[in-house]
Amino acid sequence: MHAAICCLSGTQPVRIASLKVTQCDGHTPLFTSAPQPHDLPACQALTAWYQGPLGQHLLGREQALVDEMLGRRFGYHLLQLGCAALELHQRSPMGHKFAFTPFAEAARGYQAVAETEAIPLASSSVDCVLLHHALDYAADQHQLLREITRVLIPGGHVIIVGFNPLSSWGLRNKLVPGRRPAPWHARMLGRVRLGDWLNLLEFQIDEVRYAEYALPIDAPAAIRYSGWMESVASRCNWPSGAVYVIAARKQVLPLIPVQQRQRRHTVSALTMPVAGASGKAASLPLAAKCVSNGAANGATNKEHDACRP
Fold it and tell me: How many domains, in total, are found in the chain?
């Protein structure tokens, strides 16, 4: 059961999906569903990681690209889906901006707690969707993209921020054994594969940008050492950045009504061959033949009327 309800004025989140709702002025859940598949401590760890030196450096690069892309897209409603307690949509020119998160413990900065694989919004109701690492931590990445396609209006936009597996950060994500801390526990999705999924869902990719070329070492000295490479690689948009930002637009095939052509039936005058002055046979209308013969033979008016078509 889904309900399009958002708590905008209260302090407590409203769970509007998966049959679990929390009142705005209380802590008692009205409905309780099965345990969520997400790792709640991992989400809290991701929010805490963004407060560190490397997280703040990455957040600055992501915010710059998101602001640039959102500034060129207009509409009425913007939805942000994410895991960390961050708001990246504040500088958008759209009038109504709101955010959903699947984690109640990370609901600071979000207007509601809802399952991202079952977004509690009507179809074709949102002009733009911002995914801030939502795909990296989604339980079902395909279903999340299908839900984004459903809630977007025809011609709507989606901006996806995700970790790039073809980078030094992706290499560390593969090499760290055992239980990996945030953000290295993400399910990184390659840009090429994500592009194929978007094409299957009839999205047109408008722009792809890469950012964050610093080494995945959470130390200020290592970040400063990578500064020279950051300036060169960002200008060339090298595909080895730690994150990618994809802007895509939902395509809509125009429906052209098929009109049935009506055949026009024309009735041609009957003709009879007559002898011309040169002796060759000529073709005259039957009515003209009757008039000429009647005039030559002195036919009466009744005979002329009989010859008329």
Answer: 2
126, 151 Cβ separation under 8 angstroms = yes
More confident residue, 285 or 52: 52
Q: Phi and psi dihedrals of 303, rounded to 5?
A: -70, -40
Q: Same structural domain for residues 297 and 167?
A: no
Give the confidence band of 255 by pLDDT, cuts at 50, 70, 90: low
Check whether residue 182 and residue 290 sit in a common domain.
Answer: no
Structural domain harbouring 278: 271-307
Which long-range contacts link 163-167 to residues 24+ away (Cβ below 8 Å)?
163/133, 163/136, 163/188, 163/242, 163/243, 164/188, 164/190, 164/191, 164/210, 164/239, 164/240, 164/241, 164/242, 164/243, 164/244, 165/189, 165/190, 166/190, 166/191, 166/239, 166/240, 167/240, 167/241, 167/242
In contact, 11 and 24? CB cutoff 8 Å = yes
105 within some domain: yes
pTM for this model (two decimals): 0.70
Q: In sequence order, which residues have a C-beta less than 8 Å from that of residue 40 and are 6 or more positions away?
A: 103, 105
- In the predicted model, what is the mean pLDDT of the chain? 75
Rounded Cα distance between 110 and 80, Å, is 9
pLDDT tens digits along 126-180: 999 999 999 998 889 999 999 999 999 999 999 999 999 999 898 888 887 667 7
DSSP structure class, residue 292: H
* DSSP 3-state of 43: helix
Element (H, E) at 46: helix 40-49
Within-domain flag for 281: yes
Q: What is the mean pLDDT of residues 59-82?
A: 92
